[in-house]
């Protein structure tokens, strides 16, 4: 229902409350929110759970937490042992495996530190400090500037702040945009680059139940992994780590989750959500469905092809389930009606105040225009230009080797510019990480590269049509299969030393025409940059300016009692072990190891409910009553995978690895009655380490801590 702008004071107050609590999903009694460590709702936690979150408690939790490139983790011993999910390190497991030694199939246990395996290219970040730099970022923005000019000014300031911080501290320094541009914080990280594999279970045990059970509960997964951080070839000594709980957690108990949720869109306007629903997500789903079909066909060729493709298939199927869940939520009339009503309430409250209307009133229309226009070029953006918020290769060029070529072309060009003028991911402060990825020694399999590239080229051809100028430029008159073979066979980029030569030579080698993959990346770079520029000027810049207006309007009333959308930075959520109702039935919060074997029996041990041989042979040794997985109402999203679940004593009680199916719409809103985070129970992990894998040295180190 549209709310009138002539509301009386009482109605206006009610409208504002609706806007604050619904539009921004502000927690009242619900355990909602992914809270930055410098803005934790201590009073709310104390009132509800009787626990006083102190500065010392927060600092120790912060320093015990780490970020993986694709998820979260935590220190769990004073000797640098880090706990995360199997699926967070599955790429490293695959790279360490060979056709003759498949750790994904067999699992891996290092019985001593000398047996630990270095995961080349894997790095971990530990958050050291947070500083509010909002005033500095906005200091060069003038009122007469256009949105594009203002965004460029802020971007230049952010780069300067990051560069100066790196030079002064030696720490990785990222200026993070919060509240969609309402606030900017400087996050400084200590980076660890020597990371070694200590333990992983078999893939089948970690992902028991496969895609059918993914995002569902009850669950029976040992989705855990242990790595160790080294410095100067010695295990790093850490003061802050989570001690392993020997007693676990019980129903109703307070649980904190500390981790790095990737992104949410709870602050988004209705027009923004409609754009995701009608334009962006459907294209991503079509692309992922095409990739899934290709991967299954490739893996059907044999056991070695299955080993090579399994991780990518897992990722694609997981992403498909996420996006299908999101689009189902956005197509839910009730959800969208709540969003429209709360947005209208906020707009009405602003329009009732002449000053606020002048300062903030045009924000929604500006965002809506940018999103309407995006529909005309979103396909080009997705096919040509990978984004920093969704780090995937362009839809038309799914190839590790093309990724190297794109980076080399951009690096040579960006190196000729001053830091403030560069694309953010190519600034000097990000160079070390960029080169680490570029110099990766991960194996590249020609047949797999050809299959992926041919599939993505065929998908481009089907979306654009064969007469498209882009299709003609990329395919050069060949079939997708022939062009993929020509590019893969002709490039030298499989050789890391050659990639280093190109970096050293810069533009000279880029323009030499000596490598077909580099030549392709160079040929489409102009179009790629153009569509990126249009998106950054017409969408990103406009939304930075106008979401900041919306945030400022709310700050006037609530300050930072609001939590910002997720940004893959460290956040704290709080909640409790709690079951829920689904399809009229109550779902209890715990499963057991006995339930694992019962579920396998239920499906006659057929894939994906089969257990590895080690598990069936050790069955008699296992205490079947041991709690295995459990759910809490903590507010989490993707990126929280690998997050520790801890009690108020900072003891590790569980390991986040998934959410239930109801949590998929949590990208846009949180419903504490059904949204649940799923963890591996600390007691279950310990039982598996000792009884199934005989990893007693590891178990003793965890408990000794």
The number of E-state strands comes to 22
Any idea what the radius of gyration is?
25 Å
Low-confidence segments? 1-29, 388-392
Helix content: 40-55%
Q: Sheet bearing the most strands, described?
A: 9 strands, mixed
- The chain-level structural class is alpha+beta
Mean pLDDT: 92
Distance between the termini: 58 Å
Counted by DSSP, the helix tally is 28
Amount of beta strand: 15-25%
Shape: globular
Question: Mind explaining what this structure looks like?
Answer:
This protein is of the alpha+beta class. It is built from 28 helices and 22 strands. Helices cover 48% and strands 15% of the residues. The strands form four sheets. Strands 1, 13, 14, 15, 18, 19, 20, 21 and 22 form a nine-stranded mixed beta sheet that branches. Helix 10 packs parallel to helix 14 (363-374).
Give descriptors for this structure.
705 residues; 22 strands; 48% helix
Give a concise summary.
The chain is an alpha+beta fold. It is 48% helix and 15% strand. A hairpin with a 2-residue loop joins strand 16 (580-582) and strand 17 (585-587).
List the helices and strands and how they pair.
Blueprint: H1 9-23, E1 35-36, H2 42-49, H3 55-64, E2 65-68, E3 71-75, E4 81-84, H4 86-96, H5 103-106, E5 108-109, E6 117-118, E7 124-132, H6 134-138, H7 147-169, E8 172-178, E9 183-192, E10 194-200, H8 203-206, H9 210-213, E11 225-231, E12 234-235, E13 243-244, E14 254-259, H10 270-299, H11 303-330, H12 333-351, H13 354-360, H14 363-374, H15 378-384, H16 400-414, H17 431-438, H18 446-464, H19 469-475, H20 480-490, H21 496-505, H22 507-510, H23 516-523, H24 525-558, E15 571-576, E16 580-582, E17 585-587, E18 590-592, H25 593-602, H26 613-617, E19 627-632, E20 644-646, E21 651-659, E22 677-681, H27 682-692, H28 696-704
Parallel strand pairs: 13-21
Antiparallel strand pairs: 1-15, 2-3, 3-4, 4-11, 5-10, 6-10, 7-9, 8-9, 10-11, 11-12, 14-15, 14-20, 16-17, 18-19, 19-22, 20-21, 21-22
């Amino acid at each position: 229902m549209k709310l009138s702008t002539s509301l009386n004071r009482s109605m206006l107050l009610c409208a504002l409350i609706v806007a604050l609590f619904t539009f921004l999903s502000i927690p009242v009694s619900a355990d909602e929110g992914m809270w930055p460590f410098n803005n934790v709702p201590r009073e709310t936690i104390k009132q509800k759970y009787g626990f006083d979150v102190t500065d010392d408690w927060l600092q120790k939790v912060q320093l015990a937490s780490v970020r993986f490139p694709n998820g979260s983790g935590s220190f769990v011993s004073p000797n640098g042992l880090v706990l995360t999910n199997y699926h967070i390190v599955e790429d490293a497991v695959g790279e360490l495996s060979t056709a003759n030694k498949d750790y994904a199939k067999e699992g891996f246990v290092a019985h001593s530190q000398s047996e630990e395996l270095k995961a080349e290219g894997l790095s971990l970040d530990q958050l050291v400090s947070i500083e509010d730099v909002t005033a500095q970022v906005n200091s060069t923005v003038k009122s007469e500037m256009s949105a594009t000019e203002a965004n460029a000014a802020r971007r230049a300031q952010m780069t300067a702040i990051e560069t100066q911080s790196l030079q002064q501290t030696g720490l990785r320094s990222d200026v993070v945009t919060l509240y969609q541009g309402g606030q900017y914080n400087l996050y400084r990280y200590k980076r660890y680059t020597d990371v070694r594999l200590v333990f992983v279970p078999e893939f089948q045990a970690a992902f028991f139940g496969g895609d059918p059970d993914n995002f569902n509960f009850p669950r029976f997964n040992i989705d855990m992994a242990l790595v160790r951080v080294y410095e100067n070839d010695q295990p790093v000594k850490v003061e802050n780590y989570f001690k392993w709980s020997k007693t676990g957690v019980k129903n109703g108990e307070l649980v904190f989750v500390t981790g790095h949720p990737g992104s949410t869109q709870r602050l988004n306007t209705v027009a923004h959500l409609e754009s995701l629903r009608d334009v962006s997500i459907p294209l991503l789903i079509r692309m992922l469905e095409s990739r899934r079909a290709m991967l299954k066909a490739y893996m059907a060729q044999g056991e070695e092809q299955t080993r090579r493709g399994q991780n990518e298939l897992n990722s694609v199927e997981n992403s498909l389930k996420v996006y299908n869940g999101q689009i189902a939520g956005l197509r839910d009339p009730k959800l969208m009606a709540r969003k429209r009503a709360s947005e209208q309430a906020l707009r009405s409250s602003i329009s009732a105040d002449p000053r606020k209307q002048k300062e903030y009133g045009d924000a929604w229309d500006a965002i809506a225009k940018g999103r309407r226009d995006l529909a005309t070029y979103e396909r080009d953006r997705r096919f040509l230009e990978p984004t920093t918020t969704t780090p995937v290769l362009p839809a038309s060029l799914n190839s590790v080797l093309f990724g190297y070529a794109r980076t080399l072309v951009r690096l040579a060009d960006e190196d000729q510019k001053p830091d403030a003028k560069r694309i953010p991911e190519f600034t000097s402060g990000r160079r070390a990480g960029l080169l680490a990825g570029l110099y990766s020694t991960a194996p590249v399999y020609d047949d797999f590269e050809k299959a992926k590239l041919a599939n993505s080229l065929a998908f481009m051809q089907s979306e654009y049509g064969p007469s498209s100028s882009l299709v003609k430029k990329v395919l050069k008159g060949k079939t997708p299969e022939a062009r993929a073979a020509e590019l893969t066979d002709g490039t030298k980029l499989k050789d890391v030393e050659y990639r280093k030569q190109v970096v050293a030579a810069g533009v000279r080698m880029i323009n030499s025409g000596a490598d077909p993959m580099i030549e392709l990346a160079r040929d489409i770079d102009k179009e790629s940059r153009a569509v990126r520029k249009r998106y950054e000027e017409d969408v990103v810049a406009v939304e930075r300016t106008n979401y900041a207006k919306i945030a400022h309007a709310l700050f006037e009333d609530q300050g930072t009692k609001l939590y910002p959308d997720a940004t893959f930075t460290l956040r704290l959520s709080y909640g409790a072990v709690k079951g829920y109702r689904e399809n009229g039935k109550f779902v209890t919060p715990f499963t057991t190891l006995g339930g694992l074997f019962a579920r396998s029996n239920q499906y006659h041990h057929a894939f994906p409910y089969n257990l590895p041989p080690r598990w069936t042979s050790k069955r008699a040794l296992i205490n079947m009553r041991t709690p295995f997985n459990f759910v809490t109402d903590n507010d989490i999203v993707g990126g929280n995978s690998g997050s520790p679940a801890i009690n108020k004593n900072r003891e590790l009680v569980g390991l986040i690895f998934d959410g239930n199916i109801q949590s998929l719409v949590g990208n846009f809103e949180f419903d504490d009655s059904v949204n649940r985070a799923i963890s591996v129970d600390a007691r279950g992990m310990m039982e598996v380490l000792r009884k199934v894998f005989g990893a007693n040295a590891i178990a003793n180190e965890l408990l000794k801590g």
